[in-house]
């Protein structure tokens, strides 16, 4: 998860440090689901596959505690909340560059509607290329949060 980071709001070019790699993974997972509640079982299976559920749940709660504390100590306007049987994260004004990137890709696709008269194979190739860029960005964790 080398490409995931959160910029500190009051320290230019400084990033939030993580107590553990799993804390970072939980944060990235919740941001990937952005404001949509992620079920506890889904988080556990995604972050700790094959682990004893009781132990993994304890690890999850520990990571969430570390995450909340880190965000609060550095005045990062992001909150992690209990939501039903899981958790959600609110970016509270922060912007994930992957969300911005996906919006740009969607805009690119909307510029070339399928009915525009261009050759269908060219259009499908363009869609595949844009989709490939989106997949590559998500696969390589190209996510940075800047609270401003």
Automatic annotation (TrEMBL):
**Has keyword Transcription regulation?**
yes
Q: Which InterPro entries match?
A: Sig_transdc_resp-reg_C-effctor (IPR016032), WH-like_DNA-bd_sf (IPR036388)
Keywords associated with the record: Transcription, Transcription regulation
Return the protein name.
OmpR/PhoB-type domain-containing protein
Q: Name one GO biological process term.
A: regulation of DNA-templated transcription
Reading the lineage from the top rank, the first entry is Bacteria
Annotated GO molecular function terms are:
DNA binding
Give the originating organism: Paenibacillus flagellatus
């Amino acid at each position: 998860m080398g490409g995931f980071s959160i910029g500190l709001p009051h320290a230019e070019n400084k990033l939030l440090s993580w107590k553990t790699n799993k804390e970072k993974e939980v944060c990235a997972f919740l941001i990937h689901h952005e404001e949509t509640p992620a079920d506890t079982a889904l988080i556990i299976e995604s972050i700790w596959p094959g682990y004893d559920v009781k132990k993994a749940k304890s690890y999850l709660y520990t990571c969430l505690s570390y995450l909340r504390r880190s965000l609060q100590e550095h005045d990062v306007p992001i909150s992690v909340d209990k939501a039903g049987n899981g958790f959600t994260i609110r970016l509270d004004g922060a912007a994930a560059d992957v969300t911005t990137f996906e919006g740009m890709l969607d805009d690119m696709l909307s510029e070339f509607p399928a009915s525009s008269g261009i050759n269908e194979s060219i259009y499908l190739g363009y869609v595949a290329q844009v989709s490939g860029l989106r997949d590559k960005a998500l696969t390589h964790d190209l996510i940075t949060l800047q609270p401003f």
